[in-house]
Amino acid sequence: xxxxxxxxxxxxxxxxxxxxxxxxxxxxxxxxxxxxxxxxxxxxxxxxxxxxxxxxxxxxxxxxxxxxxxxxxxxxxxxxxxxxxxxxxxxxxxxxxxxxxxxxxxxxxxxxxxxxxxxxxxxxxxxxxxxxxxxxxxxxxxxxxxxxxxxxxxxxxxxxxxxxxxxxxxxxxxxxxxxxxxxxxxxxxxxxxxxxxxxxxxxx
Length: 204
Known about the structure:
With 204 residues, the chain is an alpha+beta fold. The protein contains 5 helices and 8 strands; from the N terminus they run βαββββααβββαα. The chain has helices at residues 17-24, 90-100, 110-114, 164-178, 182-191; strands at 5-10, 47-54, 56-60, 70-74, 80-89, 123-125, 133-140, 143-149. The chain has a 6-stranded mixed sheet with strand order 2-5-1-8-7-6. It has a two-stranded antiparallel ribbon with strand order 3-4. α4 packs across α5. The longest helix is centred in the C-terminal third of the chain and has 15 residues, at 164-178. It is globular, with a radius of gyration of 16 Å. The mean pLDDT is 90.
């Protein structure tokens, strides 16, 4: 394994390669409303793999990009989270994290150094924002596997419905990485929130 690489683990819209590419190359994702500046290093991930995480995914808040709730990961609440891991550089992970918080990637981001060493207790709060809590969820091929989420758990906030566009991008990522059918992707998404019917936003 090349030194300086990490696995960025996505459980939301970034499971779709086209959506993640907007964080690396720049651009506006289909169904989104905001242009992403892109990373300092626009190279695509070296590899990707489907992974299952212990813990649950829930939808909360309101996204300026998507206009509805977005996915967060709660590793402390029992459940199953379908995710996709991308092998990227530490700098690319820092730049993805910056754009998740609507910041412009910049040299000297402390996350770049932080992710190359073990996180104390497997968790580090960079700030109070929605995606400023880093969680180490494992390791593969000598590289740490990291995701970011909110500092609170699933029971601490009101759950909100994601937009059809957001669900469609999540479903695309599930199908790309796992070979799932539309029905399988819809069933998984519906399992994340009672009363959620994601089928209207999914294309066969």
